[in-house]
Amino acid sequence: MSDDNTPLSGPPAPGNPLASPPIERVILQVQFPEILAIGNPAVASAFQEKIRFRYPFLKIDSMQDGRGGTQNLYRLGDMQGRWRLSLASGFIALETTAYTSKADLIQRLSETLAALRETVGPSHVLRIGIRYLNRGEVANAGSLADILRDGMAGPSQAFPTAHLSLAEAHMPCDEGGLTVRYGQLPPGASPDPNMFAPMSVPTWAFDIDAYTVSDGNALGEFSVQSIVDTAASLANRALAVFRWSFKREFLAIREAAEANTVRH
C-alpha cells in the first residue's frame, strides 16, 4: 500500500523495531460466555495453581455482574507489579506496564489460555481485543502537530494555544474494528485516569484499541491456537496504525541498534 493509504486492510506493513517505543500499557482481553463456576473459589484456585509461579500475588476485587449484583474479579500479579491477569465470569485479561515485545505478550497469552482451558474450560469465544496505550511528554517529543502525520492533529492544530484537545475515531479493519483516541493534555489531566496516571507536565496520549467484531454470536469454539493467532493479527494491525499515524522523524529517532531494540 502507499504511504497515503490508512493501513486498515491488507497485510500490515512491517516497520523497523523501536528501541524506545512510547508504549505505557498494553491490555489484551478475551471474552467468553459467562461461566458462573468461576465465582467458586475452588474453580479459581485450580486456575491459580497453573499460573501462580509466574503470577504469585492474588487480590480479589468485586465488580458488577450485569444482573444488579456483584461477582469476584480475581487479579493475579507478578513479583514486580508489572504484569497482571484479571479473571471474571465472562473474560480473562492480560495487562502489562513493561511491554518488551509482541512475541513475549503472545507467549504469555498462550500460557494463560492453556491454563484456563484445562481448569475452567470455556466452550466458545465472544470477543478478542488488544489495546496499546502510548504517551509522551510534549517537552521531549513536541506537540501532536509536531509528531503526527499531517491532518491528524485535529483541534490542537486548529487551536495551537489549546491546553487540552481530544480526538476519537472508530473504523472497520480486516480483523474487525479499530478505535483510536488521542489528545494533548495539560499537567494533571488524563483521558482515562485508570489507564493513564496524570502527570505534572504537559503530555500527549495515543490510545489504539483493535478488536474482533461479531453479530452477537460467538466467534468460534475456544481454541488456544485460534485465539493466539487472532490476537497476533490484531496486534500487527494496531502497531501498523501507530506507525502510519506518526511522522517518520518521530519514529526514526526511536529506532536504534539491534541490541537495544524493543521487539514489536
What does this structure look like?
With 264 residues, the protein is of the alpha+beta class. The protein has one domain (23-260). Helices cover 26% and strands 30% of the residues. It has seven helices and eleven strands. It has helices at 41-51, 102-119, 138-141, 144-147, 155-158, 224-245, 248-252, and strands at 23-31, 57-64, 70-77, 83-88, 91-96, 124-125, 127-137, 165-173, 176-185, 203-211, 220-221. The strands form two sheets. It has a nine-stranded antiparallel beta sheet. A hairpin with a 2-residue loop joins strand 4 and strand 5. Helix 1 packs across helix 2 and helix 2 runs antiparallel to helix 6 (224-245). The longest helix is centred in the C-terminal third of the chain and has 22 residues, at 224-245. The chain starts with 22 loop residues before the first strand and ends in a 12-residue tail after the last helix. The model is unreliable at 257-261 (pLDDT under 50).
Count of helical regions: 7
CA-based gyration radius: 19 Å
Shape: globular
Helix content: 25-40%
**Main pleated sheet:** 9 strands, antiparallel
Low-pLDDT stretches are: 257-261
User: How many domains comprise the coordinates?
Assistant: 1
